[in-house]
Amino acid sequence: MRCIENIRELTEVLKNNKKSSGIGFVPTMGYLHEGHLSLVKKAREENDLVVMSIYVNPTQFGPGEDFDRYPRDLKRDRALAEEAGVDILFLPRTEEIYAGTTSVTLHVTEGVDVMCGKRRPGHFDGVVTILTKLFHIVQPDSVYMGLKDAQQVAVVERLVNDYFFPVTIVRVPTMRESDGLAKSSRNVYLSPKEREEAPVLQHSLQLARKAIQEGADSSEEVMLLVRETIESGTSGIIDYIEVLSYPGLCPVEEWDGEIIVALAVQYERARLIDNMIITVSKEDKHV
Amino acid sequence: MRCIENIRELTEVLKNNKKSSGIGFVPTMGYLHEGHLSLVKKAREENDLVVMSIYVNPTQFGPGEDFDRYPRDLKRDRALAEEAGVDILFLPRTEEIYAGTTSVTLHVTEGVDVMCGKRRPGHFDGVVTILTKLFHIVQPDSVYMGLKDAQQVAVVERLVNDYFFPVTIVRVPTMRESDGLAKSSRNVYLSPKEREEAPVLQHSLQLARKAIQEGADSSEEVMLLVRETIESGTSGIIDYIEVLSYPGLCPVEEWDGEIIVALAVQYERARLIDNMIITVSKEDKHV
Fold first, then answer.
1. Which residues contact A201 (CB under 8 A, 6 or more apart)?
2. Fewer CB within 10 Å: N-end or C-end of chain A?
3. In Å, how far is A238's CA from the nearest CA of chain B?
4. Which residues have a Cβ under 8 Å from the Cβ of B24 and sit 6 or more positions away?
């Protein structure tokens, strides 16, 4: 594995690999866990060359957010990335990637005022800004993103679609514990009782899928089902439950196409999120 | 020459030409004149494959501007493009290039409130929006842009630089009549007397260059020289004279790097623009 900080050096190395049948790209903020490594695994299966970036992007943190305290462990990340099969580890420096004054800004106008985005105004502007830069530098064929953060995947898919970026966004399913709980570095903060209850989040989403596929009348009905399931199964406090089109992230007008059911639940010392994307066809309804 | 309207068809054709040593791209709004053809000529010299786009981009026209009345003559354009050596003429359709709702907007924050941009709020947002799309679709190695519209070139150079687009912007000098007047389709609207006087615009810029190279004290001094030269040589009314850094388009702090002197003069029935980019090095000063 080669570690590269300099943009020009990276583009030179990539140019010499251009004949390769594909560049797979895994953008991260580091502090790698199993979720990231599952993205690398998928990228490794589908491409000749796998590039990972590690960069804690300042522009996607709002005032008062934890940019300074965001965990960093480059030595460990490097070992994990190499072991997982990354060919090139790109470590951009802020002085270069945000050099000088920015003369053009990117602003996400749709799909941001829902789910976790409600609490993070401007967050996705920072995400699309850094990814636009990284996509141009790395010029990947495919970009691997985890569905644990389904809102981010949706925003990036729409960015790519609106502006015809020549890349394919590959959605990688959320990794789960054997009892269905979405893997998260925050799960360790759950009390034993909370941990025991937490699979109800995933369970409530499975019930939502069943209800939608069997022809639930409305989003409200589905949200109520999820709410009641969670409230009766755990002490966690519901932050939100939403049913939206995907990747549009708009209120669902009719059960057709992709639908996301997303939720966040606050526990004593951890906030957990989970979601499920359900493909519905008008014809499926009421089967 | 192949004419292509469909984006997917274009990307297929371009993919099959990927081995070529270079794709040169000339984005236009059509109604081609000698200026456009000089861009094609330059692109032809430097690339295996020359792609021209013709698209009257609605998002760069403000309310009350002449989008509907913008001249169009595709049949003539097609003949001229083919004769000039264009390989692929891309004719995007609005339904495809601006399909659906846009979820991410681009906004130019620097270099817009000067020169002609002052009169056209939002104009450059439209320019960078369409060019981002076109650059991603065509994936050119080099993009050919005319310095007649130096502000547009500056904005696009900064877009490319800020976001690391893997393209080179090639600045193509303004074409001129034998007496120095910048070629423009609007020159025909000049009266015989105005036409005779109009070379004073270019002449005033040459005097400005000489003054800067010989160590003029300030931008104000240069602007005054240009103003006096124009006012004493023609009946046209000065709209603006500006001396700015290039491509930053900021007030000049010191005579170093690239400087643009730009002007616009209003005649009875035509508004003419011209500019000169001057490279100054601190060491050159007062030679």
1. A181, A182, A230, A234, A263, A265, A272, A274
2. C
3. 28
4. B42, B43, B44, B46, B47, B49, B50, B51, B140, B141, B142, B143, B144
For the stretch A229-238, pLDDT in tens is 999 999 999 9
ipTM of the complex: 0.93
For residues B153 and B247, the answer to whether their CB atoms sit within 8 Å is yes
Strand order in the sheet with B271-280: B237-245, B257-266, B271-280
Return the CATH number of the domain spanning residue range B185-284. 3.30.1300.10
**Distance between CA atoms of B70 and B87, rounded to whole angstroms?**
25
The answer to whether A244 contacts chain B (CB < 8 Å) is no
- Match 């105004």 to its residue by tokens: A121
- B109 and A105 within 8 Å at the Cβ level: the answer is yes
Phi/psi at B277 (5° precision): -105, 130
CA B127-B132-B136 angle, to 5 degrees, is 150
What is the token pair recorded at A192? 């034993």
| DSSP conformation class of B157 | H
Domain boundaries, chain B: 2-172, 185-284
Q: Which residues contact A261 (CB under 8 A, 6 or more apart)?
A: A205, A208, A209, A212, A222, A226, A241, A242, A243, A275, A276, A278
pLDDT digits (tens, 9 = 90+) for B23-77: 999 999 999 999 999 999 999 999 999 999 999 999 999 988 889 888 899 999 9
The CATH number for A2-172, chosen from 3.40.50.620, 2.40.30.10, 2.30.42.10, 3.40.50.920, is: 3.40.50.620
Interface test with A, best of B7, B104, B157 (most A CBs within 10 A): B104
Report CB contact under 8 Å: A107, B105: yes
pLDDT band per the 50, 70, 90 thresholds, residue A225: very high
* Chain B touched by A128 (CB under 8 Å): yes
Structure-derived torsion over alpha carbons of residues B8, B10, B15, B17, reported in degrees to the nearest 10? 170
CA–CA dist B208, B221 (Å, integer): 9
Tokens of A249: 């992230």
Tokens read off for B106: 């681009």
